[in-house]
Amino acid sequence: MASQAFTKNYRDHSNDQGFQFEFFCDKCGNGFRSTFKGNNLGVAASLLHAAGSIFGGIVKDAAWGADHAKDAFRGGAWDEAFKEAITECAPRFRQCTRCGQWVCPEICWNEKRVMCEDCAPDLQEEAAAMQAEVAVEQLRDKMREVDQTGGQNFTDPQAAACGRCNARLVPNAKFCSGCGAPTAAPKKAFCHQCGTEAPPGGRFCSGCGTKMG
User: Fold this and answer.
1) pTM tops 0.85, yes or no
2) Domain of life of the organism in this record (predicted)?
3) How far apart are CA 182 and CA 185, in angstroms?
4) Helix axes 40-55, 58-89, angle to 10 degrees
């Protein structure tokens, strides 16, 4: 049998009962299935197996023989079925002469340019997409010009949760609503003599010994 074109992107759904193939658009992945073509040898083998499971004996032997006959003719039958599937499904696609892709004419083919939309994008679609993209960018710019913080003051250090009970804090809360603990971190103390930071509760400077307070 001569070699067949249009075999780049397909899936074989054939089984013992017959042959069926699905061909896909190289761009969007949409596809078409060929008409199911029955395999008479496969059907006969299945019937003999069913009968053999009931009657056994010579019927089982016949089923075994049918399997071997089916395997012997599988290659030629598959090739013929595949050829018919190609003949059936190829007209549903267009091949781009620039990149060689097979694409569906409904979505991925530019009829005006006679090429796929990867090689010759639809300008109207591109314009609509760009308008939407620019609109989103402009919306972001306008949103940045508006204060979205609701006038909240973020100059002081903020905590998301209470350090004592781990309850969630509302913005700018001075006390925890769960346990009442102050939310602000204690202010740091520095020696007025040498500027060394004093540890909490320290009475004398660790840098120069000056009395704190």
Assistant:
1) no
2) Bacteria
3) 8
4) 160
